[in-house]
Amino acid sequence: MQGSKQDREDLMRAVHLLHIMYQSNEGRSTGLPPSEFYNNDVSQSADLAQEYMIWRHLLVSSLVFQWLYSR
């Protein structure tokens, strides 16, 4: 995704929100269908699968860093 730092931060927030929605649905027989939180503008402006992987990598790296330096 090309754009300003603010655009990137907004996209990361959107990816984080999608992750939260995914987690809330995980393991439930009834949950929000993806059509309820699908956002065409976000989907057209970025490769969400790639952005999600970047976000997850940053999250895991941050958690590992916090764990290492909290000891």
Describe this structure in words.
The protein is mainly alpha-helical and 71 residues long. It has one domain. The protein is 75% helix and 0% strand. It contains 4 helices and no strands. The protein is flat and about 45 Å long. It starts with a helix and ends with a helix.
Query: How would you state the average pLDDT, rounded?
Result: 77
Helices and strands, in N-to-C order? HHHH
> How many separate helices?
4
Q: From the helix content, strand content and strand pairing, which structural class follows?
A: mainly alpha
Number of strands: 0
Using only C-alpha atoms, the radius of gyration works out to: 14 Å
Helix content class: over 70%
Give the N-to-C terminal Cα separation: 37 Å
Main beta-sheet annotation: none
Strand percentage lies at: under 5%
How many structural domains?
1
General shape: flat
Low-confidence stretches: none
Multimeric status of the protein: single chain
Summarize the structure.
With 71 residues, the chain is mostly helical. The protein is 75% helix and 0% strand. The chain has one domain (5-69).
Set out the fold topology.
Blueprint: H1 5-25, H2 34-37, H3 40-45, H4 48-69
Please tag this protein with its features.
single chain; 71 residues; mainly alpha; 75% helix; 0% strand; flat
